[in-house]
Each structure stands twice: as structure tokens, then as C-alpha cells.
Amino acid sequence: MSRQDNLDLFFRGGKTVILPIDHGVAIPVPELAQPMELIQRVSPYVDGFVMNLGLALQCGAELESKGICLRTDVYNTRTEGEGAGTIGVYGVEEAEMVGANAVMHMLYPGGANERINFVECADLIRVSLDSEVPVILEALPKGLGQTAEYTVEKVAFAARLAAELGADVVKVPFPPGASVEEFRKVVEGTFIPVVILGGAALGDDAELLKMVEDAMTAGAAGIAIGRNVWQHPNPAAISRSLHAVVHQDASALEALALLKEPVR
Predict the structure, then answer these.
(1) Contact 62, 34 (CB under 8 A)
(2) pLDDT at residue 117, rounded to an integer
């Protein structure tokens, strides 16, 4: 497959719903005890999955026709000391071995071990240029869970940094409290597709769907939301509602009402 073919598996009609299920390297994941079952339940509403190598080696047929994004680093929430933030462990070679259609790596501008992190991202992109495997950088100011750092200005810089390094796609947080117009500046200042992450489980479906609606209105290319899906009481139902906002231009209110309908 060409690089564009690989991207097209994620971006259906230029938009994407990606489900990250790679959190087992960073936090306890009891809700992901049966990942194959989860994949089957949400598959009708999800374009691709982010996963670690161990799960990618096990999945096989469950991921047929879906985009597979291999996580190339082990990431954590520590912000001090050796190994803080993210540690590169895999690369394009492993992605090709498991038939992945993309790779994803953390980019932490302003974070601990920034120099090592930037070099790892650049090395991953450099190797990818001799392959057909696109690179998605998850660009988070300072680090994972540092929500106080996720201002419009810092998120805009992180997104542009990922683009300038040569990433094909960038995944960023939606800045807390940002307006549609403020996030539009983030998107317009980044010349590659921008997708938003969900962060910690919000426990509020209306707030989640409104955030996604605002991001899409601002020009985002989609979402890569994990915990707010697989920690949800009904992962298939919330996936369907998120899919409706991203792919069917449903409003947050329409998607919220859809949650009440049974999932076939």
C-alpha cells in the first residue's frame, strides 16, 4: 500500500474516528481486559485503532479493513527523572512487520528530556520517509496529563512543531475552555491534519460531544479518543455518537439523543 492508501484507511472522506487502546503501558486498564471483544463491539463506528506491539501481534482478523497505528514509545505521566515522559522502543520496521498502517509517538515540547524526545521523533520520521508508513505525533505541551499547560498558544505551537518536524498527522488536546474560533487558529496554523484527543474520562457525555462538535466546526480532521470510549458504560453507543458528529455532521445534542437508542 502507498503512504496515501495507509492514511486513507484512517481518514474516510477526509475525517477520522480513531480509538487508542494503547494505555496499558501507562495506567491500569481493567476496562481493556478483553480488547478483542471491545474491538468487535466498536468496529462499525471506528476507522482505526492505536495499539502497542503486543496487542497488534495478537489481533489479526479483528482489524481487517481498519487502520492500525503502532505506538512506538512507552509513555508515562512522570515529569522528572530519567525516562520521564516517553521512551522510544519501536519503529517503522516493527510497524511493517505487523502490517500497521501508521506509527504514533509522543512529542512533549517543554517537557522533561525534551532533547531526547525531539530526536526520537525526528529519527522516526526520517526512517519513515524510506517507507510507506505515515507518522502521527501526539503533541502535548510539557507532557501527558499536564492540562494546565494546554493553552491555546502552547497547543498551537505543539501542533505546528509536529508539522515542521515532518509528521503526517498531529494529535493534540482541545485547550480547556477554548472557543471554536480559538481552536480554528490552531488548525489553520498547522498544515497537516489535526485530530483531537479526549484525555481523562470526563464522565459527561454532553461535554465530550460538545468538545468534538466544536473541534470539527473549527476544522479538525477527526478524533483519537480512548478513555472516554473504553471507560464509558456503553463503548459501542458512545462510539456511534462520536462517529455521528465526525462523519455525519451531527450536532452534540443530536449525538447525545442518539445515545438513548439501542445499538444494533
Answers:
(1) no
(2) 95
